[in-house]
Specification:
Number of strands: 11
Largest sheet: 7 strands, parallel
Number of helices: 9
Distance between the termini: 27 Å
Strand content: 15-25%
Helix content: 25-40%
Structural class: alpha/beta
């Protein structure tokens, strides 16, 4: 595989109007992760905000802006914000070409995933399994909304998300750099647990409704399905669940686990 080069206290105010270069993350766990990562610039807190988080933010000398629950709902895009929204400094999102990636490099790519909660859940998976970066299309894809960051539970602070203008071109570039492209598809004949998943790789998952685009499918080196004994009754898996299963099997094999014959 080709080597890659290595890659203030916020002022409080009466109104919760974050600057354009700041980002919002809803939920107590996302806010706590932002605080730990040093990215928290201000905390927007509503009635019933978690006392332990409020004390930690105050102890760090970071400003707290009191907001109504209705305003938090609007900013978060969901009422499930646990009465807090973190205002975070935007962080550089390095591309995979700028990273030092070894022979066990593992990336994720999403080909049109629309639900931001799925992006957030997959970021959480990515952080747990040591994924180096997550790639999404610049258009026709969910973004890192406050709801996505809430679901990520801090995963977005450890796994860079790279937006690409042409996913097919990016996947071809990854192949040229020594990666194998694994694609998950419920209709694939090759089962996940019988596939060789060793070596540098990028896992690709399609949209919730239509799955992988044909152009993406044609780039794949390996197209696999997850065996589901009750598929007829339950249908296909949620993309974040499928992502977690595929990553877990990849790591198991890389740690010396044998694939099924």
């Amino acid at each position: 595989m080709k080597a890659k080069p290595a890659g203030k206290k916020a002022a409080t105010g009466r109104r919760a109007r974050p600057a354009s270069r700041l980002q919002l993350a809803a939920g107590r766990h996302a806010a706590a992760a932002a605080l730990t990562a040093g990215s928290l610039r201000e905390l927007l807190a509503g009635p019933g905000a978690p006392g332990d988080l409020i004390r930690a933010v105050r102890g760090a000398g970071i400003g707290i802006v009191r907001c109504s629950r209705a305003r938090l709902d609007r900013l978060a895009g969901t009422p499930k914000h646990q009465n807090v929204i973190a205002v975070c400094a935007s962080r550089p999102q390095p591309g995979w070409r700028d990273m030092q990636l070894g022979d066990d490099a593992l990336l994720l790519a999403f080909d049109g995933v629309q639900d931001p909660r799925n992006i957030g859940a997959c970021l959480r998976n990515a952080a747990a399994f040591g994924v180096s970066a997550l790639l999404v299309p610049r258009r026709n894809s969910a973004s890192l909304s406050p709801a996505a960051r809430k679901t990520a539970v801090g995963g977005d602070f450890s796994v860079p998300l790279q937006q690409v203008s042409n996913m097919a071109r990016e996947l071809r570039a990854l192949r040229d750099a020594g990666f194998r492209v694994f694609c998950a598809d419920a209709a694939a004949k090759q089962e996940l647990y019988r596939a060789d998943l060793t070596g540098p790789a990028v896992w690709v998952f399609g949209s919730e409704q239509s799955g992988l685009r044909r152009i993406t499918r044609d780039i794949c080196d390996l197209l696999v399905s997850i065996p589901l004994p009750q598929a007829a009754a339950m249908g296909s898996l949620n993309v974040s669940v499928a992502c977690g299963i595929c990553l877990a099997e990849t790591i198991r094999q890389r740690r010396g686990g044998r694939r099924n014959a």
